[in-house]
């Protein structure tokens, strides 16, 4: 880890001012940033500790939604009465991720900024990674790529300076994508709102640019629209261990039901792309339909359309389809109804 | 007097001897000592590893690193002191990377050491080194290169090829034959405590705190490597944070730490980072097991053939004897095994918990399940039909064997009779439920060992031996054994181990520590009793004064006249009257003469129930039942715990563990505990372990065969067979991850 | 009970006679576990001692550079304040282990992947390896050394109930993950008392004050890896404390 200056901010204005310095980074929970600093991947010249800012509330928004401050810890967010009753999809996703200790540390804003687990990114001893060393290539394409992307990746060959097949590892982000969250940020030039779909980027030609957040901007809050999926939501996560493991694939499914008919749907995939994967066409294909395995399978096919696998990860395509059908099925049975039954419990 | 021929069950300690120290954080592991060296001078060393799999180091640009804050010294192949070490003696003394040449044999090989005032400074400076290489073509995979397989140069404990009878004739007359290939992956031990050394010199004498399973091995190897007298080296290690085989050898970091300490004139601490434990400290090789079994229509095995290829490091051969169980687990008319290696540019392979038997049973016991199914026989019945009454590989008797009772007891506890023989036929909600079973086996090992005991004032006792406690309960059973010799309560015994100045004991590997050390303690207490009796006889103040040695018995802390028990003296009084001076005795023991005419092996039967999710294909091992024949159980808590731990390892073998190698660079890509999966608490269901507790006194006078490894054998295949029973999908490549289950062809 | 940490204090008996080990070397060789040269080879080595010393290991000296910049910090650990001067890079774990000699908190991975470093920060369990020491300034830090009823616990009655339960149920083997497991379990019980959820709670339909079933304990203790595989006994220990406080 390279040396850095440590500063503690006591108010957002001070934090934004300090954060505007070249090479400065905000330190929240530290679960990802400190980790990456130890691996030699992040090397800020100044760490601005924002943990003491008063950004720790979850409050009802006058528009019927909810405002989640950036420094609300993952565990507190999952347990919050507003979240667990109105946005159970988010509670499920949060509690499916990491470990209790990490959830006690990690913050909402920090989780949005979580970087990929790609082996070739986290180990500086691999020479080729366009995220870490722009222009160096992508070692994952011809490497061991079981945990990599099947959707939205950039693959112009392993030596191209644009290629990247990394995935976003967050569980929280998948639920927030399905819920249609928005992100409130503030920088020296003022405040702005970024839609969730625009916040995380596909690698495109610049895989090292991962979010729409500018380096000098601070995440202030995440807002969720009025809850539509309180009664019918399920977060499904397939992984190599029953806990404390990143997703092979995950599915956030929320349904707004009118009897047996789907009024609207929120659907996103994790573990398959550089960002939480959402396809509005799939959600539209569900709207207005009566629930059925065929309707769910059709949504799954749309979600995975154009998916392309690699030597070790092609399984994700079929596994994600099965996961979409299962998550939608469980969501349609009802959050409270399925929970507590063997149907709702993963084996 | 006092013949100790039959094992008397020792009084057990209620909890681990070192338990309070462990639960309060007071137990000091190797890297945690801050004395007696001058702590203020302590420097931190960090190992720099190669980033290519094959080639030579052309140059090391150290300019920036030399100027980095806190840097004290940098050792590279260009300036490291030349050692007069002899050629390596694998597997005893490994082929180490001590900066003596510029060759790189694998990606991750130690190639430099940075010493600084803090670990952060050492690591930061290490990243500033620019190392240039001349690269050579590398081979980093082996499965597609069967043509490169060759016999191992040094197969170790067993020959790499073995034939009995005519297998071709056996297959020709078999009514049923199966032939399949079973693959086990490269695994790394990953004890929770990383390998760690603190070294400091006192003149020409070297002291080390070292995380090791073999203090006297490190002592001898350090002396040999650094060319100093063996008596100049002291190795200390009171508790070990797990080892599982990786701490059974001395690896490069230990002499490198001593070299850094010598070079800087400071005490130096060198702790491996977790990611540095995937290569430089060994791993279990991957094995590709081609197994062919033939049986008569009534289920008698007529021929067993097992041909293995595995990866071996370009630096050094190591043979994982995964065909071992095929030679003697069942009675077959004929048998043929071969074990060959293919060289790769990867780190050295080494012993890992149940070397040979863990992957061997994982492979063979699926094959047995497949053949039982083809024969339409119950898997337990099939094994009973082929029960080996004698050791077929040596045609000699077992010292003891009660495997039949293991099968019946475990099957009963598990409820095996409720198993549906039709795969894929039991569902609960979205889960497929299956039952599977397998046999567990691990040979009993024993080596020469020595111990010292002392009678102390106040009726207390001391016992010491240069052995190790890796969490294996060594402290606890040493206290028990010493106490039982004098019939005192084990809580009155002080135990010391993990210091190379103590009488010598073998490596804590091969499940042999208790079987080796306890007989030495037994011998020492026998000697001690003679000395104490003689002391009482000579003591005019003793009621036993003037008696004959043979007339005196010692129990419950008292000396008696055998012929008149009311004539007694207490040990505490005796010592008090003799100036409170401790009375010391040494003892030793070695394997019995019968060891070449009989085979000693532990046995077990393991049953598993799994639930497999139909959509995520995730497996939950709901419960495992195991019954083991391991001779005498020395301590119920520590012993059963260790067997349970072995089963957890076996579940890990079945479902989780695998080191993935990058096909181009030859680095382990998942060199972390986040990506190299070992089970977490939520992965482990109910585990029910029982032991028969029948002493094997032909093996040793304690009747105990060692339990450190047998738990990891068998259970992996039991889980694999249960997954087949649940899903109708036979996955023959470990670990059985969700993607493999999804991709496997089902019966339909 | 031995004094842990005073291991250098007892100079011991003389080396046993080498001849008695000839047999051992043979045994080890046959079992594939042999590790060193025979006694005879050892004697030969001993006879060339002087040559070894004479050449020895020549010093490899470089000019020692000044150390990194440090800053003053006060950490409140186990109820006591300690003033230190630390490099801002120092993790809370390294500060405890290297600067305060509180080695009960363990380094198993240094990346938040094993839980061996778990401590309580203002009562909440966290990974001290990913917590910078400076970020912990001002917080109440409780480590394994601060749980027992007194500073030098010798008897079971001196222990925190969770420590006593781990001892009673043999919830460990090598003991290296144990301080983290125990701190984590103490944190888990506090979390449960205030109604915190786990994914098991949600999957079993218990979103209000879930019971601490074995499945709940397992999930809530899954941030602590035990490579020895003592999980069933760890669950038993936590279950016992939950039962006692219910």
From TrEMBL, chain A:
Keyword Oxidoreductase: yes
Domain FAD-binding PCMH-type span(s) in chain numbering: 1-229
Highest taxon of source: Bacteria
Keyword annotations: FAD, Flavoprotein, Oxidoreductase
GO MF annotation terms: FAD binding; xanthine dehydrogenase activity
InterPro entries named in the record: CO_DH_flav_C, CO_DH_flav_C_dom_sf, Diverse_Substr_Oxidored, FAD-bd_PCMH, FAD-bd_PCMH-like_sf, FAD-bd_PCMH_sub1, FAD-bd_PCMH_sub2, Mopterin_DH_FAD-bd
Top-rank EC class of the record's enzyme: oxidoreductase
EC nos: 1.17.1.4
KW Flavoprotein (keyword) present: yes
PANTHER family, per database record: OXIDOREDUCTASE (PTHR42659:SF1), XANTHINE DEHYDROGENASE SUBUNIT C-RELATED (PTHR42659)
Record-given protein name: Xanthine dehydrogenase YagS FAD-binding subunit
Organism, as annotated: Granulicella aggregans
Automatic annotation (TrEMBL), chain B:
InterPro entries listed in its UniProt record: Ald_Oxase/Xan_DH_a/b, Ald_Oxase/Xan_DH_a/b_sf, Ald_Oxase/xanthine_DH-like, AldOxase/xan_DH_MoCoBD1, AldOxase/xan_DH_MoCoBD2, AldOxase/xan_DH_Mopterin-bd_sf
Region (Disordered): 144-165
Record GO terms (molecular function): iron ion binding; xanthine dehydrogenase activity
Pfam families in alphabetical order: Ald_Xan_dh_C, MoCoBD_1, MoCoBD_2
Aldehyde oxidase/xanthine dehydrogenase a/b hammerhead domain sequence ranges: 24-137
Keyword tags: Molybdenum, Oxidoreductase
EC identifiers of the protein: 1.17.1.4
Protein's name according to its UniProt entry: Xanthine dehydrogenase YagR molybdenum-binding subunit
Origin species: Granulicella aggregans
Lineage: Bacteria, Pseudomonadati, Acidobacteriota, Terriglobia, Terriglobales
